[in-house]
Design goal:
The structure is a homotetramer of 453-residue chains.
Chain A (H helix, E strand, L loop, with lengths): L1 H18 L10 H10 L3 H16 L3 H14 L4 H13 L3 H11 L2 H9 L5 H15 L7 H14 L6 E4 L6 H10 L8 H8 L4 E7 L9 E8 L6 H4 L14 E9 L10 H15 L5 E4 L1 E2 L3 H7 L9 H14 L10 H8 L3 E6 L6 H7 L3 E5 L5 H11 L6 H18 L28 H5 L1
Parallel strand pairs in A: 4-5
Antiparallel strand pairs in A: 1-2, 2-3, 3-4, 6-8, 7-8
Protein name (chains A, B, C, D): Decarboxylase
GO molecular function (chains A, B, C, D): malonyl-CoA decarboxylase activity
InterPro entries (chains A, B, C, D): Malonyl_CoA_deC (IPR038917), Malonyl_CoA_deC_C (IPR007956), Malonyl_CoA_deC_C_sf (IPR042303), MCD_N (IPR035372), MCD_N_sf (IPR038351)
């Protein structure tokens, strides 16, 4: 068995050398560079080494990257037996020395490596990109979940709310940031720069984003807001290209009509809740006339659920569609008792109330395909957010208006008339994380991200 | 025994309630608040709770703080038996699920608490201040070293080089920052604003500092630089208040004449090496005429060592003082084989060379008291830094000029003539961390900090 | 006759009241408001009054504006007899008191009015717009040239070079400024935001603009620069959308391929010379490898001149076209002895040398129409600029390379072969100001502007 | 006589050459350089020439400067006979051509010179300094008033309110600006940086300044504001160094306790009115609890007037002093009917009301010397400013409270009892411009400045 291991080591080393080609002899083998960095005591030399490693990594082909992840996952893991031993010692004598020994042993070396890599200029964005890449491998190599756990642990610490900066995005924002807004918008596509301008420049529009100081020109998440007179029931109305801006004195409602996460590599680290509440606070202060804060949100799982329930016919009748949407949002649940709809989960966890449902509210191809054109307003009532959030978190209780509950009851009565076949309550088995308005499909928020939430 | 424990718990709870008084009934007992924060799932509510905890902490009297640290240290520690159990399971089956379970169990809850506290506005500076306070307790309560280990672990991650920003400090810098420079200067005191101006405004003076984005108006470390023609041998000459600024074309040397760490709460997290090398790089780029980068550094342990060696008489003769200083820097060692002088350890670990020794170089009271007025230039020769640093790190080899080695040899010959009593090589038993020019006394860099270096 | 005048006054007053309708009774008749402003002693009330006047002016229909200009031109003119009287007094006794009296009398009240209007927020941009509008009236109402003279006198003083700020335009510049760059580009149209990005973002492209602090988001003039290896001979090559950026070490030439004036209201106030020289200075400092500074300029009058000379046939033969272009640039003159080509006049007055001519250099419809596709490089050789500029200014001497002079000589020999009809040297009678690469047609730089140059 | 003139010319030329020494042959004689600059057509060469002239001027000794001013005053004056001739022509035929000819002839060449000089970097500040120097010569050489008239005319145009920027001065302001605030404070001296900090850092203190974009680090005027609960009656109370800052909710009054003009070279160009009104507007918007805006102003002429009136005895009795101060402010007039007190003239012209008088309000040596320690509050009541300002401007009517008028009446009754000798109403013959709180003595605002106001 010792021999088998030795052979395995040899083969693995040879494979490694092929996938991590030496670059000009100067920089050496990637695992060697990493080990050298871990041993480096001079900050400045470490910084140079970190830059070399990231440069080498960037130029790796796909299979080289997987080999690198395996190196991180296996070679830079903890020694579990040593951890067990040190934990027993500490249990006997909890002195600081024993604690430090255990503490060091129980942190995989790859965490220290990530921290050292981060010293290089621009490294934070590269580590975020590395995680996006790693996430895309998890379906095929689930064992890499160990490395992902460590990386996301570190990223969550670095992207702590205390380090984020809220900035308003306007037509005066640098074009290099605006083109990212165009690219990242995931709910209602921004087709052109004129389209973007219509969402930023009018006096009754706002956009806010969180940034991290180490990635100052790349937003983490952003929300688009329309200031309106009353709660709107159509996204095409909100985004119309021949509207007149509403004067400030006529504004009484702020509509969050699009929230997009920007960084696939930060999946599972949630910024949306903080963003919405900060924006509610800032807008309240600046516009005393604002009385209501609502979303105009997609119902991404509605069509799929209607099909699963044999209720497709409801899509042909606006009234029935609104009723079935209410039923879906209030009654369709996952096995864990939480709502089936990922956007609903996001806003309800934040403490919002299901407020109003509109048919013919998103008549784009995408809107029709996902929800038969229906959309929903979630209401952020500051006086109820805390208790709603708690009731939902502890008892899965959904806050909804009386009218909306009535709609759902009517739907429950009518469903047999529509479907013809008996209800079979089945949870779809598709993975579905909690998300803001965008990113509710698997690509954008892969299964592994759920662990982190 | 169960009863005794129960009684102890009761007493401890009562004590806690006395030291953490409820503030208006609304915010509750500090440990309760912390437990509530650890359980909070809403980011926004967590943020408010974090702010309350920090506010409550700030108002605690000294004994209340110690009780709070004990709560962190004991109640929010790991369950070592559980860690041992999970480590054994993981050793058997290293699947991601088992890894995550072990990983969570082996991180003390106080780490999560610190991260959650950090979400509140301004929290980072408060956590740094909390560590400064905690450090001051370690001498009397060394068991708190466990909590210190966790806090410094997190701070080192947050104050990663990749997040630091180098800014030049000039006479155009906001006064609110400049007054901190005055307060933090720890090597050559800045007596007045005019004194400060003389170090910033002339064309042949520079000052650079590292900042963290979460503490944008509070420097972490700064270095003061004089641009000179040749290597200066007197700090009073450098700081003279009636000099004429040297024209840029006459400049060939950059002298780092003062480096000060600013944050006691970040003791053990080293920024000096990065700072010096970044400044060397920036100055080289901006001033192509620069040929030499040296320090003009104190020799803080010299007088004490001369006294211990019975060589006080050397202080009366400049030539002898220079020789003995050379001997001290090159030969006086700690038990671990590294130099006795903390400033020497700092610059030698960075890869500098002991370059030149000057007597009558700091004739201030402090300079006379510490080193009989002697100072030393450490040379930063970019072509030798890496190999010097490695030789020092691995073999405790000290880089020094030939002339300086000759001085030390002469000293070795002369010492009996001076002292009269036989040499007893003793290491002083005073703790002495590696430090840049300032902070070489125990107050500024307490013992616990050494663990972190 | 007195009666006729009185009647005229009456009619004129009635007409005035119709064209300057009272706004709500509060603000009154525009001339009255202006007179009130001229009499106002409180700065703050004056500021409010100024804002009202500009607001009223903005809402005037076209004919109302003309009436307003006539009011400025006639009612706020000087009293010439009084000026003559005071001048005679001053000639007798040049004491300060007499000087002040004459000085005040010889400045039309409208100048004081313009200065007072300028106190309102945003007024500077509005006065620039007012002049643009006024300029457009001059062809039909040349007597308004008096008011134009005063307004441009003031604008030239306010837009003094000492107040202008040079800013680089990059892809990080606010979109609100970039969209103006797109709109103002007058030489080689910017079709889309991607097109713009290709001129700003690559490492071998630059763009610089002058701004005035009172119009911080509206450029006055900008120049687009390509950094190249050698002098390029085709604008389509420079603007190609599938090039690879040149690495900095390969760059030896800076090509000014487009210079556009942005403000029609500042016609006759020249910024191009300062802009080019400032940019040459800044680029030289930042890119020591730069050896040559050239333009790639249109020859806007070439086709028209070829037609007038009966030399259209030259457009069919690249070689002939290059020769005729050389002849045109060196020999075709206005009555005042200066070159017929307005772009040539601009660069030659700046001290540039006619360097090289390229056929098939601008194959866009516009390029073909104006010059049969030919373009020219003007060379900015810093060591010759001053003497070139002086020789051109005093003796109309044109600096050109030997090769270019040879081309022109060949053209002179060949022209009869091409045209068939005898040369009739005629200056086109079209007005033609000196301009940088853009704005050489009458619309952009109306006749009145010439007075100001 | 022709010979005498020729001789004079010769002598004057020789004198000139002595006073304007050639600098290394390169730059030539200052008048020659100026004439060359006036003839220069290239902007860029002009810019260089302008820089040379200013450099040469800076190095002139005092007598050289006077010679330079004489050159500006005499050689670059208008040709009055030519102006008279062109004015007559224009009176006959007011065509634009004739207008332009007259317009050019009636502007002295020195104005064009000043504009051209201003193109050099930093020139604006140098021209402001030049005027300060010129003003200091006017007492001995009043004929230079012609040049001063032109220079102030231009500066007034350049320092137009529309170009000024209001910035708050805080403890975060660059030290280089703060040290100017310390130096420029002219009402209540700032003794140390701590003293300054007490006026900037507390939450109930504000400071605002106007800046010009061409002098971005040098304020033009600034005002210091205390936010208080009620109207304070003692400047020492306001500036006390052991106060507790008032919480925002307790603030109802903004006290302008010091207004200082900074630039002697801008004497006669008034910024104070605009500054106060802009600050009132901004504070009203930011602090809705503010109900009252008052000054706490010196009464600089009171002691002098009491002495002139034989009423010195009033200084020994607080009650009498308050009465006499009321009498002085309301009744003591200049020949032109305006108040004798220069600070009163400033605030009354702005539309303020004389509100309250306090004895023992400024017990500093200066306060006692100038006004026996009395101070006055002027009230800025936004609803009355316009009518007060108009009434004062047109009819010299002084707005005052009923109580204050009653005080003045009592004083009128009592004065004989105090003085013993009959009232002789005499205006002091000392020149006395209208000023804000500072600069009311002759040195700070010399006679010539009055012409400009």
């Amino acid at each position: 068995m010792a021999n088998a291991t030795a052979l395995g080591d040899l083969l693995s080393t040879l494979l490694d050398r092929k996938l991590f080609p030496r670059r000009g002899g100067r920089e050496g083998h990637l695992p060697d560079l990493c080990r050298k960095l871990l041993a480096e005591t001079s900050e400045a030399s470490g910084l140079q080494l970190a830059a070399s490693i990231l440069e080498t990594y960037r130029q790796l082909p796909a299979e080289g990257r997987i080999a690198f992840y395996r190196f991180l996952n296996d070679d830079l893991d903890i020694d579990a037996n040593e951890v067990a031993r040190l934990a027993s010692i500490y249990a006997e004598d909890p002195c600081p020395e024993n604690f430090r020994n255990l503490s060091r042993a129980s942190e995989p070396k790859r965490q220290d490596l990530f921290r050292r890599l981060n010293q290089a200029p621009g490294a934070t964005a590269e580590l975020v990109a590395m995680r996006a890449d790693l996430l895309s491998q998890l379906a095929h190599a689930p064992e890499l979940g160990r490395t992902d756990h460590d990386l996301v642990h570190l990223l969550r610490s670095w992207f702590n709310r205390g380090f984020l900066v809220l900035r308003q995005i306007t037509w005066d924002t640098p074009a290099s940031i605006l083109e990212r807004i165009i690219a990242y918008e995931a709910v209602h596509e921004i087709h052109t720069w004129d389209d973007l301008r219509r969402r930023l420049q009018p006096a009754d529009r706002r956009c806010f984003a969180f940034f991290h100081p180490a990635m100052p020109d790349d937003p983490l998440i952003f929300v688009e807001v329309a200031l309106t007179d009353g709660v709107p029931g159509s996204i095409q109305g909100v985004l119309s290209d021949n509207r007149t801006a509403l004067p400030e004195e006529a504004v009484n409602t702020a509509v969050f009509y699009s929230i997009s996460n920007c960084q696939a590599g930060l999946a599972g680290i949630s910024f949306g809740n903080s963003l919405i509440k900060q924006v509610v606070r800032d807008l309240s202060r600046d516009l005393p006339g604002l009385k209501k804060f609502v979303t105009l949100s997609p119902i991404p799982g509605l069509s799929r659920w209607l099909a699963a329930e044999g209720l497709e016919a409801a899509q042909n009748d606006p009234t029935q569609l609104r009723r079935m949407a209410a039923l879906y949002l209030l009654d369709a649940k996952k096995k864990d008792g939480r709502p089936l709809d990922p956007v609903a989960r996001f806003h309800l966890a934040n403490g919002a109330t299901v407020h109003q449902i509109h048919s013919e509210a998103d008549v784009s191809d995408k809107g029709i395909a996902l929800s038969g054109g229906a959309m929903v307003n979630y209401l952020y009532d500051l006086s109820k957010i805390a208790q709603n959030s708690e009731a939902f978190g502890q008892k899965n209780e959904i806050a909804a208006t009386t009218a909306l509950r009535a709609l759902a009851r009517q739907a429950a009565k009518n469903r047999n008339a529509i479907s013809g076949r008996p209800k079979v309550h089945r949870e779809t088995d598709r993975p579905s994380p909690d998300v803001p308005d965008a990113g509710w499909d698997e690509e954008a928020a892969p299964p592994a991200a759920q662990d982190a939430s």
